[in-house]
Design a protein that fits this description.
Low-confidence stretches: 1-14, 179-184
Keywords: DNA-binding
Order of helices and strands: HHHHHHHHHHEEEHEEEH
Distance between the termini: 79 Å
Strand order of the largest sheet: 1-2-3-4-5-6
Helix content: 40-55%
Oligomer: single chain
Protein name: Helix-hairpin-helix DNA-binding protein
Mean pLDDT: 85
InterPro entries: DNA_pol_lamdba_lyase_dom_sf, DNA_pol_X, HHH_MUS81
Pfam families: HHH_8
Number of domains: 3
GO molecular function, one term: DNA binding
Length: 303
Amino acid sequence: MPEPLLTARPNPGVKPMTPLATKPLPENIGVATKFRDFADLLDSQGADGFRARAYRRAADVVSRLERPLGEILAKEGRDGLIALPAIGTGLAGAIAEMVATGRWSQLERLRGDMEPEALFRSIPGIGPRYAHSLAEDGQLETLEDLENALHSGALHIKGIGHRRKEMLGAALAERLGRARLSTTPQPQPLPPVSMLLDVDRMYREKAAAGVLRKIAPKRFNPKGEAWLPVLHARHDNWHFTAFFSNTRLAHELARTSDWVVIYFQAEGQPEGRCTVVTETRGPMAGKRVVRGREDEQQLKEPV
């Protein structure tokens, strides 16, 4: 009696292989190139190899797609991107930004090319004055920063009232490829304060020792000097990138060697950001604190 034929059953937990595109799609190739450039920068700046490999895998998937990323985003939103192999929530957000603007903030940041004002000016209704206020007064860097600030009620910029915020929210929802949010998004997970302070300490020690790769930021750097050290670190499920603050306020207050901006990202999740500074007032004076989480930190301080 012949053996019964065995048929493979699809595993719902495994994403299917992506078919090879019969013809290269320029939009997809552009995104894949940026992912590979980002991976190369991570390698050159001493980042964990796992992270670079993840971006190269994503680049391979994107370059093989038979459909333009913009079409997937328009018809299926970010869920359509997340359904692709090797693409999680964080990478889907990066793709949405690139499709919407042709730019990618994370890549520009590592290159030292970050210019938030130019990014914000690409939004209808935002001219040079408001773009400057969003970047400097609002301390925003990306379209997602702006969207989150709008929906959380944290955006307080003179001249941007309720009606303009409504218009901005609609424009951002369309450009970032998601349904317009009617409620505040769920807060993303945050790394422990103790972990952030460890990254801050490691960054400042390595920067002082001169062992970190330095980049030449475009902003507030007329001579084009490579002065800004960059650190990549990994703790548990978290990836961190740290820089000294290069904002207008940090330069005005001479805090460019004190304020440390830490970008953090858990596996497959969107990127977050915090700033660690030396406190100058109150019971925490003289200590390093994570801005916005002082109360949490103070509760854990020994009596």
